[in-house]
Amino acid sequence: MQDLISMIWRRLPLVLTISIVGVLTSFYLIVSSPRIYEASAVIQLDMPAAIDQGTDSSLPAARRVQLIEQRLMARANLREVIERLDLFSNTPQLSEAEKLTALRSSTRIESISAPGVSVDSRMSLAAIVITSRAETAVTAAAIANDFADSVVNRDRDNRRLRIGESRDFLTAEERRLNDQLAAQEREIIDFSSRNEDSLPTAQEFLQTELARQDETESVLDRDIMTLQRERLALEAGNLTAGARPSASLVQQIRAAEVELSQARRTLAADHPEIKRLEENLTRLNSGATETDSDVARRQAELIDTQLTQLNQQKVALDTRRQEIDAARARAPQVARELEAMTREQRRLQDRYAEISRQLAQVETQQMLMDSDQAERFVVLENAVPPEYPVLSNRKKSAVMSVGASGALALLAAFILEVMNPVLRRSKQFERVTGTRPVVSLPYRKSEADIVAWHRRNIYLVVLLVVGALLALWIVGAIPGLPSPGVAPAPTDGMG
C-alpha cells in the first residue's frame, strides 16, 4: 500500500491529467447523447360474458395479434405512419430504408397471457402492450397510440373481412352442394326406376311373385287340362251320337253355367266373353232352345277361346319369369352401383350439414359483430408523454467513467514505474536483496527540485480548476453559457 501511495504521489500530474481528460470526455459523450423517451399503450381483450366462446370459429386472439403485428410492421404501413405523424422531418438526410428500420426497431408489441389458462385456449390472451421509443415524449406517445388504434381498427376490419369472405364462400359451397345433392337424387331415382326388379329391396317381392306364378301356372295347367277333356268329350259325343235328338234344356243350362263359372275364374268381370255367357244363360233360362249342332259348335268355340287365353297367360308368365331371372342375375351389380351412389349421397349430405353449421356460426358472428357483442380489442390505457427519458442513469454513467479514468491513470503510472525501476526506500531494498541496510539517509532536494516541485503544484491546481470549469460548462451548470455537448431538443419526429 505504501508503494502504491508513493507511486501515485510521484506520478500525480500524469494520473490527474489522464483522470480529468477521461472524465471530461465521458461527460461530453453522456451529455451529447440524445435522450430517448418511452411510452406504452395497453390494449385489453374484451370477452363478453353472454357469448359462448366455444361457438366462435374465428382465429384465436393470439394468432390474430401475430397477423396484426406482421401487417403493422410491413413496409407500406410503416411508411403511412411516418407520413401521418410527420416523423423524421428534421432528419432529411436519412434514407427511407433507414427511417423504416428505425421505426420498426423502436416499436415493440408484447402479448400478456392470462394466468392459469392454457396456451391453446382461446382465452389465453389477456392484454397487449405496445411500447414505442422516440427522442421526444410527445412523439413516443403519438407512435404508441397510433399503433394501438391500428391494432383495434385492423382487428375489427380483419374480422369483418374474414367473416364476409367466409360467408360468401360457405354460401357458394352450400349452393353447389345443394345442386349436387339434387342431381345425385335424380340419378338415384332414375337408376332405381330402370332397375326396379334388381334392387335389393325388390328381391323379397320377386320371390313372392315367383311363388304366386307357380301357383297360377298350376291352376292354368289344370284349367287347360279340364278344357281339353271337355273338348275331347264334346268331339266324342258328336261322333257317337250322330243325329241324336237335341239335348234337353236342362243340359244346355248346365253347360252354360259351367262355361260361365270357368270364364269367371280366368277372365275379368267386365270381359265381353263373360257378358256373352251371361246373356246365353239368361236366354236359356227364358226357354229358348238351340239345335245340338249349334250348341256343340258354340261349346267348341268357347273351349278353344278359353284355351287360347290360358295359353297366352302361360306365355306371359314365362316371359315374366325370364325377366325376373335376368333381374335377379343383375342384382349384385345393381346393389354395388346403388351402394356407391348412396355413399356419395351420404357424403354430400354430411358435407352439406357441416357447411350449413359453419354458415350458421358465421352468420351468428356477423350478427354479434353488428351488435358489438363479439370478442374485441379495447384500448385500456392510452400512451401519455413520459416526464423523464428512459435509461436516464447519468450519475451512474459518470461514476463509472470516473472509475475507468482512474484505472487507466493508475495503469499508465504503473507502466512508467516498471519501465524505470528504482529502490527508493529501505524496505524495498530489504525486500529485493533480503539484507537490511545499516544506514538510510533521506533525500535532500536541490534548488532545481524545489522549483520543479512548485511548478508541479501550480500545474495540479490549474489542472483541477480548469477541469472543474470544463465539467460545469459541459453539463450546462454555468449560467448564461450553453453547454457544447447538449444537442438541441427535437421539436418533432424521431431524429
Automatic annotation (TrEMBL):
<keyword id="KW-0472">Membrane</keyword>
<keyword id="KW-1133">Transmembrane helix</keyword>
<keyword id="KW-0175">Coiled coil</keyword>
<feature type="transmembrane region" description="Helical">
    <location>
        <begin position="12"/>
        <end position="31"/>
    </location>
</feature>
<keyword id="KW-0812">Transmembrane</keyword>
<feature type="coiled-coil region">
    <location>
        <begin position="324"/>
        <end position="365"/>
    </location>
</feature>
<feature type="transmembrane region" description="Helical">
    <location>
        <begin position="458"/>
        <end position="478"/>
    </location>
</feature>
<protein>
    <submittedName>
        <fullName>GumC family protein</fullName>
    </submittedName>
</protein>
<dbReference type="InterPro" id="IPR050445">
    <property type="entry name" value="Bact_polysacc_biosynth/exp"/>
</dbReference>
<feature type="transmembrane region" description="Helical">
    <location>
        <begin position="398"/>
        <end position="419"/>
    </location>
</feature>
